[in-house]
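=== RUN LOG ===
request id: a7f3
mode: sequence -> structure
chains: 1
length: 281
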Amino acid sequence: MNKTAIEYLTHTWNPIAMRCTPAGEGCAHCWHLRMADRLAGNDAFPTEVRAAYAGDGPPVLVKKRLGEPMRRKIPSIVGVQFMGDLFHEKIAFEDIDYIFDAMRIASQHTFMVLTKRPQRAIQYLEHDTERKGIRLWWPPHIWFGVSAENQKWANERIPLLLQTPATTKFVSVEPCLSPIDLCNISIDSWTRYNALGGCGVTSRGVVGQSYPNVHGNKLDWVVVGTETGPGARSMHLNWARRVRDQCVEFGTPFFYKRGETGRLLDGRLWEQYPISMVQRE
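=== RESULT ===
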C-alpha cells in the first residue's frame, strides 16, 4: 500500500494493474491515465503489467500485492483500486473475489471501494450468489461508494448503490461539475427519492412498492471536491454549499475535500466521517 495525499485516506491499495476507460464527464481529465502512462514505461514491471497500464492487454491481478493490507498492522483508511475501477467491465469476478477476501482478513483497516460502475457491482453480487448459494457477505469495515459529478450520474448511480448490502454507503461528488440535489434523485420519470432521508414517492405511491431494495436506504457519507490538475474545470462554491446544507439538515456526515480556494468552506474545515469510522479510530 502507498501513502496518499487524498485528504480522507491514509493509503491507497491498487492490487490490479489496469488502464481504465471513460465512464462519464468526470473522466475527461483523469489523473489515473497520466499515471498509467508513466507506469506503462517502467521496465521494472513484467511485460503483461506494462501492457495492462498501456491498455494493450487485459487488467492483471498482481497477487503479491494482495498481502499488503495484512502486513500493515496499524489501522488505516485505504482507498481500493483508485488507480482505475474495481468494477470495470474487464476485471474478472474471480480477481474481485481475491480482493474481497484480502479485505475481509485485514479487518483492522477501513477500506473504501469507489466506483463509477455500480451496475457491475450488482452483477458481481448476483454472480456470487449463484456460485455459492448465499449473498456476498459485505463486512462493515468495507465501505462502498459511487462517483457523481453531476445530477445525471447521481440519478443513475446512487439508486444502484443503495440496493447493495454495504453497511456504509457514500457518494463522492468529485469533480463537482454542476449543481447536485441529493434530496431529489430522479430514479425514473415518475420516481423521486431523497438519498439523505431514505424516503421517496412515485406518481403511483410509495417508492417501496416499485423499488423495495432502495426504499429506506440512504447515504451514510458525502464527499465534495473540485477538479484538480491540468485543465481543471471550475466548481462554484454554491454547489458545494447546497450539498453541505442538505447534509447538515439530515445529519449526514460531510467531507469537503477541496475547492479552488483551498480546504475551507465558509471559513470552516469540514472533515466529518460516519460513526463507524469514529469508532475505529
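=== NOTES ===
Residues 118-132 form the longest helix (15 residues).
The longest strand covers residues 110-115.
=== END ===
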